[in-house]
Amino acid sequence: MSRLLVVIIVIATLFLIGQWYLHSRRREARGLFERLARRLGVARRDTRIDLMVGGHRVVLDAQVTRDDRPEELRLTLGSDLPGDFRLTRPASASHYDECKHREPVARGAPFAGWHVRSEDPGQLVALASDRRVLERLEGLAALGFTRVELSKRKLRALWPDFSWKADDHRWDEGEVDGLPDRVRLAAGRLSELATSAENALHLSAPVLHGPRVRATLTILFVVPLLLMATGILAILYVYDMYPTVRDGQLLALMALAGAALSLIYTAIAYLLLHKSIQRAARTAVVGFLSFFGFCLGSSGPILWWNGTGPQGPDRRVTVEVVRLQQESALASGKGWLLRKLIGEESPIEEWSTTYRAIVRSWRDDSLYGITRNAEEFSALPPENGYLSLTVFPGALGLEWYAEVAVAESPEPLDRNREERPQGDGRP
Questions:
Q1: Contact 159, 72 (CB under 8 A)
Q2: 76 and 101 share a domain?
């Protein structure tokens, strides 16, 4: 038996074991929900039970398939409350990453004793000033629902350390701590919490807030994306005006500029997202995206200033053509199907093709690529021919070339002669 076959068998076995485990978890949850729905006298849809309490439709469901959060029992109702917040009792803090290394709110502050994350502090002040809101929260916590979340117009109470084993719960009606009674009471208190919270916010004085977190986050995402688009256009057009001799140096300078600017941009994003619940995660995404945005976005200014800024005298050199190189993104195996779909000799294929003359350096024996368009490429000399071009030192130290022409024969001692000024450093 080959090693590859053994690896495939092991992977398939682990996959089947994982699917069996997930299926057993779902089956256990469905069994518990079926028994709970029967005790509550309501209909069940898989692991979902609908309850009508206090004029609100409360949905009882579960988190049983994902491994990045605890296996929770959840009560959810639709809400018109604005903003986003999370309130967690210390007893359940270990279940949530944003609470593990934070202390509960100090005495005297809104929701003292709870772990609080909010994008709208003014909203929390208004809610904490209403005694009924605090009573409903404490009542939910006493029933095991020790975390309350508001997000995407949904008010949710969670029981993070809920046991899915039916034998761990009492089921008889009227029994102390019976699961059906606890669920029914918690649904009622969540409904009362929604009503009390709406009243508290309507009666509170309006609070002036800064830009909304989502709008700020959208702007922070849009800026790097726009820079990427403009950077790609700059590479396509500005590079043809001031093509560099060593593209590796250009890429290194773009990476350096992108890293420096993205660090500043990420720090600004971290400050602007100070009200965000997911501040660290969102800032990391913004920083990752901004690095590529600023790398590409810096290409245009770098090429333009390198070609137009103050620089030394140009020089005319003659170089030997080692070979001609034509590369197309559609010529690879992956591009074969696309080439068939768009047709042979399509304008898209021509646009995606790069034409280069690989020449020997006028300084040493290294090789450079001189990029030309399709028409100029067809007029280039074949192998062992010669090209004459004007080389400029570049304002940023990136040598670039212009005025490429076919040379009949190399000029003697061209590589070793001293630089002589020709013009003012621009084509």
A1: yes
A2: yes
What residue type is assigned to position 355 of the chain? Y
Q: How far is it, in rounded angstroms, from Cα 155 to Cα 79?
A: 6
- Note the pLDDT of residue 139: 92
How many beta carbons lie within 10 A of that of residue 348, not counting itself? Answer: 13
Q: What span, in angstroms and rounded, lies between the C-alpha atoms of 49 and 58? A: 8
| Average pLDDT per block of 10 residues along the chain, 427 residues long | 70 84 74 83 82 85 57 84 83 82 81 82 80 91 90 86 81 74 90 87 53 77 89 80 80 89 90 74 87 88 85 79 67 50 52 69 73 68 72 84 69 46 49
Residue 32 C-alpha from the chain's centroid = 38
Q: Which residue, of 158, 185, 203, is where some domain finishes? A: 203
pLDDT tens per residue across span 33-89: 888 888 888 888 777 888 888 788 888 887 654 444 456 888 999 887 777 788 899
> What was the pLDDT predicted at 157?
92
For 207-216, letters b (16+ CB in 10 Å) and e give eeeeeebeeb
The closest alpha carbon to 362, from 414, 419, 400, 422, belongs to 414
Q: Domain count for the chain, please give it.
A: 3
- 163, 50: one domain: yes
> Chain centroid to CA 93: how far?
27
CA distance 26 to 159: 18
Indicate the residue type of 24: S
Whether residue 180 contacts residue 39, with contact meaning beta carbons closer than 8 Å, is answered with yes
Q: Enumerate the β-bridge partners of residue 24.
A: none
Share of the chain residues as helix, strand and coil, in percent rounded to the nearest 5: 45, 20, 35
Q: State how far the Cα of 102 lies from the Cα of 123, in Å rounded to an integer.
A: 21
Cβ atoms within 10 Å, residue 125: 15
**Beta strands per DSSP E along 237-314:** none
Asked whether the beta carbons of 123 and 86 are under 8 A apart, the reply is: no
Tell me the residue range of the domain where 382 lies. 315-407
How far apart, in Å, are the Cα atoms of 39 and each of 35, 42, 148, 182? Answer: 6, 8, 25, 12
In this prediction the pTM is 0.51
Q: Is 369 helix (H, G, I), strand (E, B) or coil?
A: strand
Token pair recorded at residue 64? 């049983």
